[in-house]
Amino acid sequence: MDDTHLRALLGERHPFTSPASLRRAEDYLTEQLTHLGLEVSTHSFKALGGTYHNVIATLPPLVAARPAPPLIIAAHYDTVEGSPGADDNASALAVMLEIARNLRAVPMTRSVRFIAFCLEEENLLGSLAYVSSLQAAHEEICGAIVLECVGYARTEEGSQQKPPILPIAIPTVGDFLGVVGNVVSAPLVRAVEAAANLAVPELKTVSLLAPGNGAIRR
């Protein structure tokens, strides 16, 4: 994978300080997903005094089977104020686009829904609005793989520090991928980690099952 998507998305993408860049990111993602031949739509929601959009692209199953709940693969496209948003979260968007490109030839038995969420940095407003729409429609989802900050790695000892809330030991070198889910998502966490270890043995992974629904309690 080259860095074309990363460079195209690089730059502050904030609803108040850089709204034009936020819209350009939305347009770029829509264009790229459409170019892949996917069915692309937007989920509009009201927030912060305006209307914002989650970009959604659907890859239908290639294998004829009984309808099954879709799998979601997602990443957010907004940034915090003052950030170029390279690792957080253009890196994950680039990965999501590459996953979409590569999965087109895979005989999937369920549809995959690629979602670029807006306003994640504003208390998860985009994803919460989307989940509310799923609940209102009584739509079932197989699971969700949400990509976040996947483009930064270091090989020096001490380059990874452990957040105090983590209940597990983690490596002190920041060259691994964390796979985190709540208890209900345990099968999906195990499946993602197993697939990563099989397909890319040199990629180190560390998994964590958060108790309950995964909410942080301080």
Low-confidence stretches: none
> What is the mean predicted local confidence, pLDDT?
93
Task: Write down how many β-strands occur, each being a DSSP E stretch of 2 or more residues.
Answer: 7
Distance between the termini: 39 Å
Principal-axis shape equals: globular
The largest pleated sheet is described as: 5 strands, mixed
Order of helices and strands: HHEEEHEHEEHE
Using only C-alpha atoms, the radius of gyration works out to 18 Å
As a percent range, the share of helical residues equals 25-40%
Overall structural class, as computed from helix and strand content, comes to alpha/beta
Portion in strands: 15-25%
Count of runs of 4 or more consecutive helical residues: 5
Strand order in the sheet with the most strands: 1-2-4-3-5
